[in-house]
Write a structure and sequence with these properties.
Blueprint: E1 3-4, H1 6-18, E2 26-34, E3 38-46, H2 49-53, E4 59-64, E5 67-72, H3 73-79, E6 83-89, E7 92-98, E8 104-105, E9 111-113
Parallel strand pairs: 1-6, 2-5
Antiparallel strand pairs: 2-3, 3-9, 4-5, 6-7, 8-9
Length: 114
């Protein structure tokens, strides 16, 4: 299961509204090899509602706080149980991740190891 905090969900909804996208749009959350710790988090906006409403057989859809998150099954092996949050800091704003599967993370929080 992937969870998204109310703060992060509100940010996603604001982005969707800014771009004039329907409520059926959402986030694609995945991993890719790279970063200083081995794996990087990848967050993309899924703009096509048809694409999102009809995920492939390799995708899992989670809905939390009224926001949809689409995760491919391979990434889910490394992301299951992750909480996505949104933080606003003086020098930048970003999504943050609390991943129970990560055995280590880099200093910037965008990559992890298992």
């Amino acid at each position: 299961m992937i969870q998204i905090s109310e703060r992060a969900a509100n940010k996603v909804k604001a982005i969707l509204t800014e771009r004039g996208l329907p409520e059926t749009a959402g986030l694609r959350f995945a991993i890719k090899g790279g970063g200083c710790s081995g794996f990087e988090y990848v967050v993309d906006l899924v703009e096509s509602p048809r694409k999102f409403d009809m995920p492939s057989r390799h995708d899992k859809v989670f809905v939390d706080n009224g926001t949809r998150v689409l995760v491919d099954k391979k990434s889910l092996l490394f992301l299951d149980g992750t909480m996505i949050d949104w933080e606003e800091q003086e020098f930048g704003h970003s999504f943050t991740y609390s991943n129970p599967n990560a055995s280590g993370t880099c200093g910037c929080g965008t990559s992890f190891s298992v």
